[in-house]
Please model this.
Amino acid sequence: MTSTSHRHHPAEIPAATDRAPAPQPRPRQSLRSRLAPHAHRYTRISPAVLRVCIGLVFCWFGVLKLFPGASAAEGFATGAMTELTLGFIPAPVCLLLLAALETGIGLALLTGFLLRWALAAFFLHMAGVFLSLLVLPDAAWHTAAVPTLEGQYVIKNIVLVAACLHIAADELTP
Model:
């Protein structure tokens, strides 16, 4: 008796139609689209990153003012503060007050404790810092648009102001 069934050789088996198609190469993503998720995550933590970084700088520069001669800005800062207080506060006391103020602002920024008070103190401090360009013009400017090294030291603080505006906006936004 012969069988009517037909056996196929394995090489002759027809291809299964339920197999997944071969993977196609993915289109290349732009660098922007690959970085977007990371940028989105950073956007959420950027105020904290700025707060800690500025806090470290303020602590560092504030502590330096506790050691006479350690801060490059010591003479300029005490001279400006002495001028702004009309000479009522002697330079050594000005230096200690600046050291305490900057260190306190720095610690508050680092920890987030009393942050709103620290931000208010920061902006008042920056007002005094920028006023130094006016009260010590000979020390701050070579000519009208050419600052001295001390003047440049003051002017770069505009970046810190912008960063603290971002921190303040984040702090005040519900």
Q: What stands out?
A: The chain has seven helices and two strands. Strands lie at 141-143, 146-147. The longest strand covers residues 141-143.
